[in-house]
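[Discussion] Sanity-checking designs against the backbone

I'm trying to build intuition for which residues belong where. Below is a structure token string of 325 positions. I'd appreciate it if someone posts a full sequence so I can compare it with mine line by line.
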């Protein structure tokens, strides 16, 4: 009887005193929430983070503060989150560049797999291959033919060594058997100016940054990297349609929490982030920023993240891109 009484008492305590993680989740958030953006203010990631922060502030009745920590290709901000208390009050919002860094840098101050928990993929995005209108190749097939006839003479621009536009250029070269000359620039703005001026002939660019130039005719669209055509530019074929079978690449913005953040809090973050990104006032603005809302589960995004890590690591090795310090 004594044993049964003890069991009943223990069961009663379990009901009255929930598990530590569940108790934390019930009180979360209990203080201001920090969205760390590892890039400068004013960019696409910062814009989405601020819109997201407004929705979370209203939902949680706690301030959701955007904390810009630019530098080292996003690694400074990521390191700050890796070392933050794992209580869910500090998270990282970053791009698919976070899946490139482990294969690109010789040494990182953190381990992307061990020091972070993927919370959710907020958005999906694609890029567009554009050229200067004076470039003699008017289509993707003509670009490939020209590049094959003049190895090393046709160039493509990027936003830096190892940046997504660089890796896409290398993927394009590998899949088409062409030899294009890589010309790196320090960011989207100088690359756009170089395209407009004819300093570089083609480049993979975020849609939001070049859409006005495409619509005005100052840049020529050759194809989009997504699996289906863009609703914004329905007349522009996908790169696979235009002549490079199997070519597809989509980027993302996503949320990561420090390792050891309680699963209950990770789940709540995922649910609330997904709800915010699908809110009409954000969802309607995303296409103009070049994004589509996602908001998948932690497990779904973790699987995609692992796959992207493997893909980018392979591209970096095959292209013989030197490891960066």
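Best answer:
Here's mine. Compare freely.
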């Amino acid at each position: 009887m004594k044993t049964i009484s003890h069991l009943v008492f223990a069961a009663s305590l379990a009901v009255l005193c929930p598990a530590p993680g569940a108790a934390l989740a019930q009180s979360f958030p209990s203080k201001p929430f920090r969205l760390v953006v590892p890039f400068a203010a004013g960019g696409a990631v910062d814009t989405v983070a601020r819109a997201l922060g407004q929705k979370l502030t209203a939902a949680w009745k706690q301030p959701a503060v955007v904390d810009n920590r630019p530098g080292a290709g996003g690694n400074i901000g990521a390191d700050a989150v890796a070392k933050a208390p794992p209580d869910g009050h500090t998270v990282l919002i970053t791009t698919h560049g976070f899946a490139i860094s482990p294969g690109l840098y010789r040494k990182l101050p953190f381990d992307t797999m061990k020091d972070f928990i993927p919370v959710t993929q907020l958005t999906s995005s694609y890029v567009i291959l554009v050229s200067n209108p004076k470039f003699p190749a008017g289509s993707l097939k003509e670009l490939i033919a020209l590049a094959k006839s003049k190895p090393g003479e046709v160039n493509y621009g990027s936003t830096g060594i190892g940046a997504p536009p660089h890796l896409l250029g290398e993927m394009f070269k590998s899949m088409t058997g062409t030899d294009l000359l890589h010309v790196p620039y320090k960011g989207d703005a100088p690359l756009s100016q170089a395209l407009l001026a004819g300093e570089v002939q083609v480049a993979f660019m975020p849609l939001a940054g070049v859409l006005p130039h495409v619509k005005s005719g100052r840049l020529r669209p050759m194809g989009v990297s997504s699996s289906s055509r863009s609703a914004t530019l329905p007349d522009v074929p996908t790169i696979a349609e235009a002549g490079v079978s199997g070519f597809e690449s989509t980027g993302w913005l996503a949320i990561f929490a420090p390792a050891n953040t309680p699963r209950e809090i990770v789940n709540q973050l995922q649910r609330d982030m997904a709800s915010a990104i699908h809110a009409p006032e954000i969802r309607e603005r995303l296409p103009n920023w070049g994004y589509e809302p996602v908001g998948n589960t932690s497990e779904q995004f973790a699987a995609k993240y692992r796959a992207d890590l493997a893909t980018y690591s392979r591209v970096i090795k095959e292209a013989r891109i030197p490891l960066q310090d």
